[in-house]
């Protein structure tokens, strides 16, 4: 099993760690880096060719989500969001998909699409839950329940 490495913070120490890992043979696809500033993220992407999460907030959200969905005390690859795993959003590996009962596969796909929809909706409306509920055609309270269920916080989209 391939292990992925996350370099949290792309300052001088983070870049030194990244550089050393790549020189020692760590595969580009096995490394993800977080950078607080978009211009820093772009520089690392161009300079090293690694996947970069452009904000510390995004990395924090990914870790919080992984902790929330982890089964046990260890975060597994399956617990991480697709952008951190380096897979296409919503993609389920064929070997895993084929082992699921149909209903479970459909439920998993629905959950992924629902979360993606909620994130896109709040991003578009700057975290305004009232307007998001109106656009979604549902009661505000129902939207709040969905947000809680899928671990999406409206505050994460305000002031962007």
Beta-strand segment tally: 3
**Main sheet properties:** 3 strands, parallel
Low-confidence runs: none
CATH class of the largest domain, named Alpha Beta
Averaging pLDDT over every residue, what do you get? 81
Helical proportion?
Answer: 40-55%
Give the neighbour order of strands across the main sheet: 1-2-3
- Which topology of the largest domain does CATH recognise? Rossmann fold
Beta fraction of the residues? 5-15%
Assigned CATH architecture of the largest domain: 3-Layer(aba) Sandwich
Instruction: Report the total helices.
Output: 8
Q: How many structural units, i.e. domains?
A: 2
**Based on helices, strands and strand pairing, what is the structural class?**
mainly alpha
Would you summarize the structure shown here?
The chain is built from 8 helices and 3 strands. The chain has 160 residues and is mainly alpha-helical.
Architecture blueprint of SSEs:
Layout: E1 5-8, H1 12-23, E2 31-34, H2 38-48, E3 51-53, H3 56-69, H4 82-85, H5 94-97, H6 102-124, H7 129-136, H8 140-149
Parallel strand pairs: 1-2, 2-3
Describe the structure.
By secondary structure, the protein is mostly helical. It has two domains: 1-87, Rossmann fold, CATH 3.40.50; 89-160, Arc Repressor Mutant, subunit A (Orthogonal Bundle), CATH 1.10.10. The protein has eight helices and three strands, in the order E-H-E-H-E-H-H-H-H-H-H. The protein has helices at residues 12-23, 38-48, 56-69, 82-85, 94-97, 102-124, 129-136, 140-149, and strands at residues 5-8, 31-34, 51-53. A three-stranded parallel beta sheet has the order 1-2-3, sandwiched between helices. Helix 7 crosses helix 8 (140-149). The longest helix has 23 residues, at 102-124.
